[in-house]
Every structure is written in structure tokens, then in C-alpha cells.
Amino acid sequence: MRAVKDDRLVLTTYGRSSGFCIDPVEKKPLNHFLPGTPTLSFGTAGCNLTCKFCQNWSISKAREFDKLADRAKPEMIALAAERSGCRSVAFTYNDPVIFLEYAVDVAQACHERGIKTVAVTAGYISPEPRKEFFQHMDAANVDLKAFTQDFYQRLCTGKLDAILDILRLR
């Protein structure tokens, strides 16, 4: 998802999506954020966890860029949401912290049109990029997958403490 190009680390999936779908916002699942409204959902490839039970494995762990068939500039996503009657755009299917730069640019384009943004995330992100990411999100669902460190290490190859840290934020 990232590569070195001209001595810089770049996001290779910028502007590329595994697909777009209009969902009810409750599917994110959010019940008290713009209830009863549609949201334009999309994701890219890549995830920072490797959950053995992932329902989006074929999307989030796509090894071939051919699976990222849809291309869209941030402004086009905001316009598509507006034209479709969506009051929000949801970054979902894979963890949006993986495509932080693209998610932030899409969020800014959405906000310019009065469209809200939703992050569906595992919450596995370091403090510095976390600040930047969440300052552009209007709502988030942090998916706590289990309550033990052993579970996170064995089944997700992550650390529970990192997720608990984000859940403690206000």
C-alpha cells in the first residue's frame, strides 16, 4: 500500500477503491449519527491487522492492484455522495488509517460540500497520525474485537493496549 518513490514514502492506493456502495448509516454501525440516512461507503486495499476472521479479507488484503478497479479523486467522491443524496461518506471495508492521506483529502472535499465523514476502524494507529486522522472525521466506530491481549496477538497480530488507548480518548 506504500512504496518508496523518488526517495519518498508514498501511498500507492491513493485515489483507488475496491468499490463504492450506498448503505444505511446504521450499517456502519452507527445508531445516533444522522439516523435513517444513506452513506456512500468505500475502501481501498490494506489493513494494519491480520484478523483471521476478517469478513473483508478479499478486499482488505488484496495483493493485486487489479482489485482496486475504481478510481476517484476526493472531489469526485464528495460530488457523488451529494448527487446520490448521501449526507455522509464512510471509510470502511478496510481500515481507513491505512489510506490516511486519501481519507483526509476526501474528508476535506466532503466538508466543503457539507457532507459528514465516518471512519470504521480497528483503532490501531499511533498517536501522532491518529490526531490528524480523527480531526477530519465527524463520527467513528472503533471495532474492539476482543478483551484479551492473547486474542489480539494470536488472531489479529496486534496489541489490545493500542486499541484501548484510542477508546479512552474523549
UniProtKB/TrEMBL annotation:
This protein's cofactor list reads: [4Fe-4S] cluster
> Which PROSITE patterns does the entry mention?
RADICAL_SAM (PS51918)
List UniProt keywords, sorted A-Z: 4Fe-4S, Iron, Iron-sulfur, Metal-binding, S-adenosyl-L-methionine
| InterPro entries (alphabetical) | Aldolase_TIM, AmmeMemoSam_rS, Organic_radical-activating, rSAM, rSAM_sf
Query: TM spans, by residue?
Result: none
Q: Which part of the chain is the Radical SAM core domain? A: 32-170
One Pfam match: Radical_SAM
Family matches, as CDD domains: Radical_SAM
Q: Name one GO molecular function term.
A: 4 iron, 4 sulfur cluster binding
What's the protein called, per UniProt?
Unannotated protein
**What organism is this sequence from?**
freshwater metagenome
